[in-house]
UniProtKB/TrEMBL annotation:
The encoding gene: glnS
InterPro entries: aa-tRNA-synth_I_CS, Gln-tRNA-synth, Gln/Glu-tRNA_Ligase, Glu/Gln-tRNA-synth_Ib_cat-dom, Glu/Gln-tRNA-synth_Ib_codon-bd, Glu_tRNA_lig_a-bdl, Rbsml_bL25/Gln-tRNA_synth_N, Ribosomal_bL25/Gln-tRNA_synth
Residues of the Glutamyl/glutaminyl-tRNA synthetase class Ib catalytic domain: 28-342
EC number: 6.1.1.18
Protein family per UniProt: Belongs to the class-I aminoacyl-tRNA synthetase family.
Xref: PROSITE patterns: AA_TRNA_LIGASE_I (PS00178)
Organism expressing this protein natively: Winogradskyella haliclonae
tRNA processing is among the record's keywords: no
Protein name as annotated: Glutamine--tRNA ligase
Disordered, as annotated region: 125-145
Positions of the tRNA synthetases class I (E and Q) anti-codon binding domain: 455-529
GO molecular function: ligase activity
């Protein structure tokens, strides 16, 4: 089996099947259709990555289409931001299109539907229509205007377009079935009257098409082969297909290919809000400085904070394409940016909480320029010169008057190495009237070959460049800020999500440009903010060198830790037991066993799972259980490797249908 077909996700399987069934490869066409009513956020990157990734994989065009059907909420600012963000991520679209391009065509089709008795003008209030729709367990009732004649409906609809009625006075509805189990099929709205300036069509229209009517028909007009959307649109698929079937009869000669809608699980991230409406509230209530505030999960915010396109694309790749909703830990995103910046960001020295150190045996007025490596991960990064002098800054946390043997930084009588420089020993301190240490007096030695345990970063006082440093933390303190029915998500805003400090930096940073990224050694990754000006640098903290939030989580007591370890040991054993009898179980019990395996998957170390990749071919049940477990771990951030791909590929070639079906879902 080729490398290309080993790792197909379920959407790629659908496409491959369509191609095998006769769909010409040149007919493949995808789209990303944002509504320009806000900035794109990290959740959108999954949809962007899927559609544009398929375009790259199959060398197929991808349209960027703005579904601009609600002028009350849409602005050109959002259009520009969306284009900027997608381009920054490294994707290129074939055509820039707008649903508003199709307003006349949609209107003409709506007129044809009225003539065919498939749409009518309703003149009731929205509240009355909502009541008539019924409930999921109770059928709806027909509108008294459902029986209007074709002539009457045409007259009213044309007058709606001409601006003769007030907003809300009439709507156009599709005539489907008020008793359909799917409430979206109960005579959905197609048009409403709205007097608002449209950012592209101005005042040309005062009736605007509803999203469900516009979206699928725009796909059809553009001859999109696969309309990919998130799971919340799955109930809309029936209506999508119904509308598609109506217009297909009107245009099949010119537009021969009806699009196919398929859904994937959207990206949910812990400690993060994904609703544009709620993100707008954060902006409007001043909790953040704007859509591009570095604490915001918007692509603009992430870019300003210092995240890289490659880190975000790697994150999306690790998350993968799934059919079921799940929540990804935000620490995986942070891991990806650390991993990327570790390779590319030059190391520099900066002190954010300074304590002056005076090296008493170093000559006054003397300075040296010492060699410092830029990036040990990059052989081509070279080196730079950093100045050393009698007075330097170190971090306050790096010194204690008295400390135990496990404190490997500077203490009275103790020695540490200064990065790229000498070894110093602390001899005495100078304090202010309140007893606070304001200076540490040290001596240095040129015997740099001596073995000392601690190494500190530092900055020469006379050469230090002052800069504003903005230390950002997570915007929310709760893992699921909008997951509490009895609480407003705003209650979980972190009051300490931004701390502003004055930093002292080595002079090589004096000319740093907006967007440049660095590792402040021992502190984290930082980039130059848009607010920077010559002689007034501003740095944003992108991410720390380690996951500091992991330390804040409550640690289990000793007996709890033992119990958890035992549970992890037991999990793989239980999964094996469930697998042994899996293929002999009736379907209902198989589903129950599968759910149990999925719940145990989080407690299985990958090494234990990989050990089962070599399970004998005849033990199909155990291999199925391993696949189910593996799928859950991949969804939760496990990175694919050659061993995983080989195991899945072998399963796909097996004769056992259950085994093949599980493998094809990964």
């Amino acid at each position: 089996m080729s490398e290309e077909t080993k790792s197909l996700n379920f959407i790629e399987h659908i496409i491959e099947e369509d191609l095998a069934n006769g769909l010409p490869k040149e007919a493949l066409r995808f789209r990303f259709p944002p509504e320009p009513n806000g900035y794109l956020h990290i959740g959108h990157t999954k949809a962007i990555g899927i559609s544009f990734g398929l375009g790259e994989k199959y060398n197929a065009p991808v349209n960027l289409r703005f579904d601009d059907t609600n002028p009350a909420k849409e602005e050109q600012e959002y259009v520009d931001a969306i284009k900027r963000d997608i381009a920054w991520l490294g994707y290129e679209w074939e055509n820039e299109l707008y649903s508003s391009n199709y307003f006349q065509k949609l209107y003409d089709w709506a007129v044809l539907m009225i003539k065919d008795g498939k749409a009518y003008v309703d003149s009731q209030s929205s509240e009355t229509m909502a009541e008539q729709k019924g409930t999921p367990t109770q059928v709806g009732t027909n509108s008294p205007y459902r029986s209007r004649t074709v002539e009457e409906n045409l007259d009213l609809f044309q007058r709606m377009k001409a601006g003769e009625f007030k907003a809300g006075e009439h709507v156009l509805r599709a005539k489907i079935d008020m008793e359909d189990p799917n409430m979206l099929m109960r005579d959905p709205l197609m048009y409403r009257i709205m007097y608002a300036h449209h950012h592209r069509t101005g005042e040309d229209w005062c009736i605007y098409p509803m999203y469900d009517w516009t979206h699928g028909e725009s796909d059809y007009i553009e001859q999109i082969s696969h309309s990919l959307c998130s799971l919340e649109f799955k109930p809309h698929r029936k209506l999508y297909n119904w509308f598609r079937e109506q217009v297909y009869d009107y245009a099949k000669e010119q537009l021969p290919m009806p699009p196919k809608q398929r859904e994937f699980a959207r990206l949910n991230l812990s400690y993060t809000i994904m609703s544009k409406r709620k993100l707008l509230r954060l902006v409007e209530e001043g909790k953040v400085s704007g859509w591009d505030d570095p604490r915001m999960p918007t692509i603009s915010g992430l870019r300003r904070r210092g995240y890289t396109p490659n880190a975000i694309r790697q994150f999306i790749d690790k998350v993968g394409v799934a059919k079921r909703e799940n929540v990804i830990d935000v620490s995986l995103l942070e891991f990806c940016v650390r991993e990327d910046l570790n390779k590319s960001a030059n190391r520099v020295m900066a002190v954010l909480d300074p304590l002056k150190v005076v090296i008493t045996n170093y000559p006054e007025g003397k300075e040296e320029w010492l060699d410092a490596e830029n990036n040990p991960e990059d052989d081509n990064a070279g080196s730079r010169k950093v100045p050393f002098s009698r007075e330097i800054y170190i971090e306050k946390a790096d010194f204690k008057e008295e400390a135990g043997n496990k404190f490997f930084r500077l203490k009275l009588g103790g020695e540490v190495r200064l990065k790229n420089a000498y070894i110093i020993q602390a001899n005495n301190v100078l304090k202010d009237n309140n007893g606070n240490i304001i200076e540490v007096h040290c001596t240095y030695t040129t015997e740099t070959e001596k073995r000392v345990k601690g190494t500190l970063h530092w900055v020469s006082v006379p050469h230090a460049v002052e800069a504003e440093v903005r230390e950002y933390d997570r915007l929310f303190m709760d893992e699921s800020p909008d997951g509490h029915k009895d609480k407003d998500f705003m209650e979980f805003v972190n009051p300490n999500s931004l701390k502003v400090k004055t930093g002292y930096l080595e002079p090589s940073l004096a000319e740093a440009k907006v967007g440049e990224q660095f590792q402040f050694q021992r502190l984290g990754y930082f980039n130059v903010d848009n607010d920077s000006k010559p002689n007034a640098l501003v740095f944003n903290k992108t991410v720390g060198l380690r996951d500091s939030w992991a330390k804040q989580k409550p640690k289990p007591q000793h007996h709890q830790a033992q119990k958890q370890a035992q549970q992890k040991r037991l999990a793989i054993s239980i999964i094996q037991q469930l697998g042994k009898k899996y293929t002999n179980l009736p379907e209902e019990k198989q589903l129950k066993a599968k759910a149990e395996i999925q719940s145990l998957a989080k407690d299985v170390p990958y090494e234990d799972l990989e050990a089962l990749f070599g399970t004998a071919v005849k033990k199909a049940g155990t291999r199925i259980a391993v696949l189910i477990t593996l799928k859950e771990q991949l969804k939760n951030g496990l990175k694919r490797n050659e061993q995983i791909d080989a195991f899945i590929a072998k399963a796909k070639e097996d004769k056992n249908e259950l085994l093949v079906a599980e493998a094809n879902e990964i």
